[in-house]
Amino acid sequence: MIDEARLIKLAVEARKRAYCPYSNFPVGAALLAKDGRIFTGCNVENASYGLTMCAERVALFKAVSEGARGFLAIAIACGEGPCAPCGACRQVLHELAPGLEVIMTDGEGKTVRRGKLADLLPQAFTPSHLEDQPDLPR
Ligand code: THU
């Protein structure tokens, strides 16, 4: 069972910890692992703009580095209305959680939109594509 309300609450709280002095666009995420643990993330920006890390990837990298592997759902809180994860985050999440449920909400967790990661990233590039090229040096 996915406790959606709890995930949303944690994403909204994580959003308050965002470090985003350049965009002033805080984002929070809460990722539910199959083992029941929830990992939160917020965006962390940098004076060298391109080094910014999104909230979703912070949550995923925290989870993987703590030994979590399977994932059920992610809640993302941002802005005036719900927003979908950026393309880079979709790709990175898809690597480990193609079946992920994506719960999108605004900064206060009021309006909620739901989707499946596989629908947000059709025809994804996956680890299996690397197996199709036996002639390439590894
Ligand atoms: N951002 C996220 O954290 N997640 C997304 O999916 C979209 C964008 C952050 C990156 C940057 O710090 C700010 O939002 C504006 O793009």
**What distance separates the N and C termini?**
41 Å
Strand content: 15-25%
Radius of gyration: 15 Å
Taken together, the total number of domains comes to: 1
CATH architecture: 3-Layer(aba) Sandwich
For the record, the CATH class is Alpha Beta
Query: How confident is the prediction overall: mean pLDDT?
Result: 96
Give helix and strand order, one letter per element, not per position: HEEHEHEEH
Quote the CATH topology. Cytidine Deaminase, domain 2
> What is the count of DSSP helices, taking H or I runs of 4+ residues?
4
| Main sheet: strands, sense, barrel | 5 strands, mixed
| Helical residue percent band | 25-40%
Small-molecule binders here are:
tetrahydrodeoxyuridine
SSE topology sketch:
Layout: H1 4-15, E1 27-33, E2 38-42, H2 55-65, E3 71-78, H3 87-96, E4 101-105, E5 112-116, H4 117-120
Parallel strand pairs: 3-4
Antiparallel strand pairs: 1-2, 1-3, 4-5
The chain binds tetrahydrodeoxyuridine.
